Amino acid sequence: MKVSRNDAKDYARENMKGIWAAALNPFNNDGSLNEAGLRSNIRHWVDDLQIQGLFIAGKQGEFFSMSLDERKRNLEIAVDESGDTARTIMSCSDQNFDTVIELAQHAENIGADFIVVHTPVLHFIDDQDDTVFNYYNEICNRTSLGVAMWSHPDSGYLMSPQLCARVAEIPNIVAIKYSVPRPMYAELTKLAGDRILVSTASEDDWLDNIEELGWQLYLCSSPPYLLQTRADRRMHEYTQLAFAGEFEKARAVRDSLDPVRQALKSTRPGGKPQAHQKYWQQLLGQAGGPVRPPLLQLTDAEKEATRDAFENCGLRL
Fold it and tell me: Which residues constitute the domain of residue 119?
């Protein structure tokens, strides 16, 4: 335990800053977790790209295909490899409540900084608000770590800004990854931005959200390590310019990455986001590898189209 439950909000305000990335998990050809590859990726992200926080074992990490022991090992590697250089937020999301708690307690025991838990699937309940509040309250009562909410359409509903603000009253609710339209997260920032850190995964809106909403945290997706290399850290550069209030310069740097964004978006096959991003990682020299069932692998033609776009996007290696 790094801080008490009642100090979690202050700890988050001080330590959840800058660019945080959601880690893809590299797997070997036999489907096992590529531990050496994951460690190498983390060191590159933290040391070379200066990514300040890592979101571990989320949807992009294919947690749904991993055993409980594998998920625990995933968290352990991230804490061990990031050390004191980067912060960690561990995804404990699961439909089984006992699994959520077991992962949360494991994260706390190994020295993680925060956990994130997405809303439960509640297709069978018409009015979810009280149930969702109770869900997060029960989790927060069983860990001293700061907890981030995560609301997205996959749950079959979205938390309203008003419900998020209500949950934000819980002492160790510290943030939210709010995968919703911009008017909704802008409203939540006004309602509860003094109590929790509001963020969304859209890199397209990151600069605008710093300038217009006063955000300090990008939480998080894969662009921080797909749009950047050791020799080309333009996302980091425009973020630092924005934090310094130099928004015109920041916009120029941000916009210069449009060819890279377009190369990624134009070659991404429907239904294969992890496979496509892992192949892009390999083109960058990072560990990628196959996805696990039930996800689909890229075809040879999809790889060729991605490789051609990558080679012509202007990203400096």
Answer: 5-230
